[in-house]
Structure prediction request, 433 residues.
Amino acid sequence: MTLPVLFYSMLGARLPGRRRPIPRDFPLPRLLPYNAAMPAYPHPPRPDAPPTARVRLRRLAGRGLARVLAPVATSTGAPPHRLLLIRPDHLGDLLFLGPALRLLRQHLPGAHLTLAVGPWAQPALPALHGCFDELLVLPFPAFERGARAGWPRRWGMLPLLARRLRGRSFDTAMIFRPDHWWGAMLAALADIPRRRGYDTPETTPWLTHALPLRHEHAAAGNLRLVADLLSMDIDPDPRAHPLRFRLDNATSEEARALLQSLAIPEGMPLIIIHPGAGAAVKLWELQKWVEVARRLARTGARILLTGGPAEAALTAELHDRLPDDTVDLGGKTSFRLLAALLARADLVLGPDSGPLHLAVAVETPTVHLFGPADAVRFGPWGNPARHVVLRSHWSCVPCGRLDWPDVPAHGCVRDITPEQVVSAAEALLNLHT
Prediction:
């Protein structure tokens, strides 16, 4: 018995009868010389370095397994009727999915849309209100924050979830994360006949239709993937396909009452600083936030600090360095209440994070600080006159290394100065008034 067949038998699934050829000309990143003009520190990131041996091995194994396990597309010619939409990521990525799902719902009103997300993404679901018929909460491995599932559990989940999906009669699966080979493999093992995603070395072997990947905003890529399914042309634009987050009346009233209890009267300029982010390498220095907050407070605005439960210590430390009338709500709001507070603010500042995209979704002007993350792909999806991106000037930006082990050395975001942030904030405040 060959190794792929043995592996598949361990998964407890049946071998599909027809196979399809797997292309062998997968492009690999080019190796470019390290730019000596970058700030010197040990072990510099190399954005264009070739894939590691581990990644190469994974790609090779994926091709071999897909050759045996992935069924060929079923060419029925019928429009998709039961779709599985896979997006394993966190809050900001779910917000970016909204425009594409609204387009899909608009053009396939009779289709049954099942959205598969991780449990960590559920607070963002109001951004997708009315865009799906059924929700599947799946424990996608490698996306959990904190302790992650090991390889035995990661592989052991595949046959269980595939068996769960196989009886649902899905005719189409859409993998919205470009490199999510695990989700594409899951759709193939579940015998979903049509599997659509992006043309990347990890996912292509498991797909029946791969869309060429462009260097563009994640929301634009989602829209193009849906437009390709619908055989329609599209020019992704945030003005035509904006982010949205549905605010209910009760939560909006809760936000109003909270601000009133904090002695922040209606009409007083309100600036929210959200200093936290999902990765430590995105964080700005606290002393710089102190300088920005003090200078903006002189304009007559009230400064409010927000953060999730894991960021409460961060906002508390920042609050201790600021005037007494600064309000610290770190760890004290739900995601819905945070959205309602952001909607009432005049301006929101912070590093690249889900809450900053939430502010865009509720139409509040923002200033985003970007270091290692790619602002082209993950910047604000909104009117550039109301949403400002400040980038590091390091020549290696964006390296995309959010897991960089030496955080003090990976200081590209700290290249942004308080003067830049204050200048951008004041320009947006003047525009808002």
Q: What stands out?
A: The first helix runs from residue 3 to 11. Confidence is low (pLDDT under 50) at residues 1-44. The two ends are 72 Å apart (CA to CA). The chain has two domains: 3-13+57-72+79-142+151-229, 254-432.
